[in-house]
């Protein structure tokens, strides 16, 4: 009787072990909903970063200002600035076109860009010679080399908002304005 109980117990535990192994194998082959959501979000962020970096490289370095359009930018794209924000594609395009008209040799480098969800942080460097009108400031012939950071919000795979941070005093000093 004791042997039958021992054999029954061994069979029972082997059965439990087999069920446990099957459970593990089955769950490893079927990712959880959370896992799938995280993978999707990671892919969207990677796609956003790639598009974002490509567009800004072409806009500034290849002088393709017309890429500021509905394909890459939300129709209500906003540049957070003082004293008031610039809203809409045409205003956004005009704002950044000042950098192209003010610096014919503009060189824009994204040093690093990373993000989470629909937010991106960009660390950048801008170099150029102030040889054209820049936001109403006549050409000074001075060279600038300034770095900064931009906080970006994406919406449905498009650029929806940007806010630049840089040392404006150093920038104006390099332009010879201060």
Give a structural overview.
A 6-stranded mixed beta sheet has the order 2-1-6-5-4-3. It has 178 residues and is α+β, with helices and mostly antiparallel strands. The chain has a single domain, classed as Nuclear Transport Factor 2, Chain: A. The termini are far apart. It has 4 helices and 6 strands; from the N terminus they run ααββαββββα. It is rod-shaped and about 105 Å long.
User: Averaged pLDDT, please?
Assistant: 91
Looking at the structure, the CATH topology is Nuclear Transport Factor 2, Chain: A
CATH architectural label: Roll
Largest sheet: 6 strands, mixed
Summed up, the domain count is: 1
* H and E string: HHEEHEEEEH
The oligomeric state of the chains shown is single chain
Bin the strand percentage.
25-35%
Q: What is the CATH top level name?
A: Alpha Beta
Residues in helix, %: 40-55%
DSSP strand tally: 6
Would you summarize the structure shown here?
The protein has 178 residues and is α+β, with helices and mostly antiparallel strands. The chain is built from four helices and six strands; from the N terminus they run ααββαββββα. The chain is rod-shaped and about 105 Å long.
List keywords for this structure.
4 helices; 6 strands; alpha+beta; rod-shaped; 178 residues; Nuclear Transport Factor 2, Chain: A; single chain
